[in-house]
Amino acid sequence: MIDRRRLMQATLAAGIFSGTALRAACAETSRLVFNADDFTELKKTITTAKGERVVTYRFYKAIPYVSEPIDVAYQSLNISVPVSIDGKRVDSSGSPILFSNSVGGYMPSSVADATGIGGAPMRGLPPTGMQAPPQGVAPTGIGGEVQSGGNAMIAGGKRVSNAELALAAGLTVVEPGARGRTLTDAAGTYYGVAPAAIVDLKAAVKYVRFNKGRIPGDTDRIVSSGTSAGGALSALLGASGDSPLFAPYLEAIGAADASDAIFAVGSWCPIADLEHADMAYEWNWGANPLSTGNTVDQNLSAQLKNGFATYQSSLKLKGLGGFGPLTSANYSDYLLKTYLQPAATQYLAKLSSEDRAAYLTRNPHIRWKANQARFGWTDFLSHVGARKKGLPAFDAFDLSSGENNLFGRDKTKARHFTAFSQTHDTGKTAIDADIPALLDLMNPMFFIGKPNVSTAQHWWIRVGTKDSDTSLSIVGNLAAALSANKRKVNSAMYWDGGHGANEDADAFVKWVSRLNKDTRMRG
């Protein structure tokens, strides 16, 4: 792979203005120049909190964002630029850019078949024939993942799209595709396993920033959004800006010569911190029954829970709001005071007196006094009910989970990524030698506070309180780690929200629109 920038600089400095190498470097660079004239003008009616908005926009479809794609069907992006809203002309050139990924389950995501904004379904799923979900619970695919990031569900089953709402607010929207864990070539080699998805999203950011002044919008204020695995990737993108660890991967696919750091992050129910996720899951949901009514092996659950105690102590995190050091012993109290009781209070306060009384009758463990909701941790766990996943929740003993597939390699579909599951399955304690480095590359917690890394300044983090796709401590730790590193964090939970819940999408878009221009990144 040619280092285009260094080659061109050295060649020009030497006074050499022709030759195969220079032409190759220039050709690679020119392929990544955004063509502002290649668009289709479309119109869409979008429902917002303030009513319907008719948006006319320019739609740029399936633009390759690297010069040497491995699979261009996934390594392309769409761009939507608003022209008018309700007949009034708009100019998004000075506004933030929403970078909305549609990854779910660490599956491949393609924009190639989209016919407009928000129309890029995740690829690679088998037919599901799904039934409509219960109220407040998002539709699920493999591993309980929502099928299209940015198109999560709010209470009552109403679809909401961050991308569409951002467009209706006058923002440019970028929707990137990315390789995913199920992709194989003709020889049966897996080419979308870790770290392909995050490498692709970084390359897409580089493309946008490389085209500063050509793509409408402020490329110094890119705001990433994603749900579930897409939420984890959004957080990872924000945490790991310009990390040199990704340079060889980005070089190999011909990423643009620009920064991959972003300004802000929107992350919903992130499936993150995978090497510790089984431990955290048993700490949180270990006592909850499966949907069958049975409980998981409590001895194994206790072993994992003990591992979480050691891990949590090693983080040396302090809770938000002056809570103090976070440990496995006080974490439930922290979640209750910081997230769960405030979420229940907000939910109940919005109900009519009659509906609130009916809800409290159905849920007598919740006490309502002085307009505040109060309950204990055990009552909360009972309120949630059945846990979503078995044991282990992520590194399955039989290698059947999506995360096992995520860490596949070459023609091996799935591998263990924790010593706990490797030992239980094979009797060997050592995981494959390349796994620890891959785990680092896929974990936003690894990058927060690291030198030579540009972590996003602003964070919007959300999860539903009935979301047992991962531990609630994943959001709690992410928010606490960011706050400790002087990042501005807006984190909250949706009471009774299921996996993929996004109940304040309009507020998120307003938050994006108001991000302080004076603190935007440079470079």
What do these coordinates show?
This is BD-FAE-like domain-containing protein. By secondary structure, this protein is of the alpha/beta class. It folds into 2 domains: about 30-125 and about 135-270 and about 505-520, Rossmann fold (3-Layer(aba) Sandwich); about 275-455, Rossmann fold. The protein is built from 17 helices and 14 strands. It has helices at about 5-15, 20-30, 160-170, 195-210, 230-240, 245-250, 275-285, 300-315, 330-350, 355-360, 375-385, 400-405, 420-425, 435-440, 445, 475-485, 505-515; strands at about 40-50, 50-65, 75-85, 90, 95-100, 170-175, 220-225, 265-270, 320, 325, 365-370, 370-375, 460-465, 490-495. The strands form 3 sheets. Strands 1, 2, 3, 4, 5, 6, 7, 8, 13 and 14 form a 10-stranded mixed sheet that branches. A two-stranded antiparallel sheet has the order 9-10. Strand 5, helix 3 and strand 6 form a beta-alpha-beta unit. Helix 1 (about 5-15) packs across helix 2 and helix 7 crosses helix 8. The chain is globular.
- CATH architecture descriptor text of the largest domain: 3-Layer(aba) Sandwich
Helix coverage percent: 25-40%
The CATH superfamily of the largest domain is known as Alpha/Beta hydrolase fold, catalytic domain
What's the rounded overall pLDDT mean?
89
Output the CATH topology of the largest domain: Rossmann fold
Tell me the number of helical segments per DSSP (H or I, 4 or more residues long): 17
What is the 3D shape? Answer: globular
* Count of extended strands: 14
Task: Please state roughly what percent of the residues sit in beta strands, choosing from under 5%, 5-15%, 15-25%, 25-35%, 35-45% or over 45%.
Answer: 15-25%
* Unreliable spans: 1-17, 124-152, 518-523
Pfam families: BD-FAE
InterPro entries: AB_hydrolase_fold (IPR029058), BD-FAE-like_dom (IPR049492), Tannase_B (IPR048124), TAT_signal (IPR006311)
Protein name: BD-FAE-like domain-containing protein
